Amino acid sequence: MEWKINDNSPIFLQLEEQLLTAVVSGYFPPGSRLPSVRELAAEAGVNPNTMQRAFAGLEGRGVILTNRTAGRSVTEDMEIIRAIRREKAREEARAFLKRMQGLGYSPEEVRQVLSETEAEEEEVWKKDLQS
Amino acid sequence: MEWKINDNSPIFLQLEEQLLTAVVSGYFPPGSRLPSVRELAAEAGVNPNTMQRAFAGLEGRGVILTNRTAGRSVTEDMEIIRAIRREKAREEARAFLKRMQGLGYSPEEVRQVLSETEAEEEEVWKKDLQS
DNA sequence: TCAACTGTATTATTGACTTAATACAAGTAT
DNA sequence: ATACTTGTATTAAGTCAATAATACAGTTGA
Q1: DSSP track, chain A
Q2: The dihedral of CA A94, A99, A103, A108: what is its sign?
Q3: Strand, helix or coil for residue B35
Q4: For chain A, does the N or the C end have fewer beta carbons within 10 angstroms?
Q5: Which CATH code is given to the segment(s) B11-76?
């Protein structure tokens, strides 16, 4: 997968975020086996310890199952995945609205800015969805 | 003003962000004098050096004028302020759409989640706008 | 069976952010 | 005029993320 890392926040948090997104978006299908820590670390260009820490942060959510010495896999429970997808979407929406509110935007203005921006990105979006 | 600081990103970046928002939203009116670095630092509960660094990052944008030994003030040029407000809103919108796209949401689904979330936060929003 | 790979753990080192404690030159206010 | 406040700079110390280099026990595959 493609990793995007900037230095405005701890790398392990960004990895955690992107791993969860990868599962929830179906990039890593339910039940599938995940690449090893070392492999993912090499792919992302980070130290294995850092990737390891990202997984440690992902524990307890139930999305990913760890088999001590036989790698990791994505849960087959679609219910869990769907729930987290919805939860993350809500978080994003709430954070976005809060920021726009902080800038002094009314709900109507938000809708307008959003549809303008959406129009700009439209081609890319459509292409990504069908792939 | 109210400061909200978490440890997921460098404090000076968060201060920078919030200062810009405060100006752009009109909390610090155009032409008004800003509190001193020391005062703002105390208010935010951070070291003066950290607040100083936040201002350093804000230089060159033209929003804030520094008068070497007589404090800082907000520009009176509303055009600059409006431009930055728009720019920041666009950035937020673009980032939001990208994240939602990453979760596998279609533009229609995004609109739906957004209006649901908006409904939840509505009372708070209205109250804040009129104050 | 045995080499290769898995997750996991440990130790040391580097670098960035943050705090703390000052210091100084220049403008402000009483 | 003089004390106070301003932005700015410097030095030292502490914290923590990240890298690097290993190591080990258990599973997988040829």
Answers
A1: ------SSS-HHHHHHHHHHHHHHTTSS-TTPBPPPHHHHHHHHTS-HHHHHHHHHHHTTSSSEEE-TTS-EEE-S-HHHHHHHHHHHHHHHHHHHHHHHHHTT--HHHHHHHHHHHHHHHHHHHHHHHT-
A2: negative
A3: coil
A4: C
A5: 1.10.10.10
Gap from B66 CA to chain A (nearest CA, Å): 23
Quick check: B4 and B50 in contact, CB under 8 A? no
Instruction: Judge: A117–B90 Cβ closer than 8 Å, yes or no.
Output: yes
Side-chain half-sphere CA neighbours of B114 within 13 A? 22
Bases along strand D below 7 A from a protein CB: 5-11, 17-22, 25-28
Q: What is the pLDDT along chain A (131 residues), one digit of tens a residue?
A: 999 999 889 999 999 999 999 999 999 999 999 999 999 999 999 999 999 999 998 887 889 999 888 899 999 999 999 999 999 999 999 999 999 999 999 999 999 999 999 888 776 666 666 65
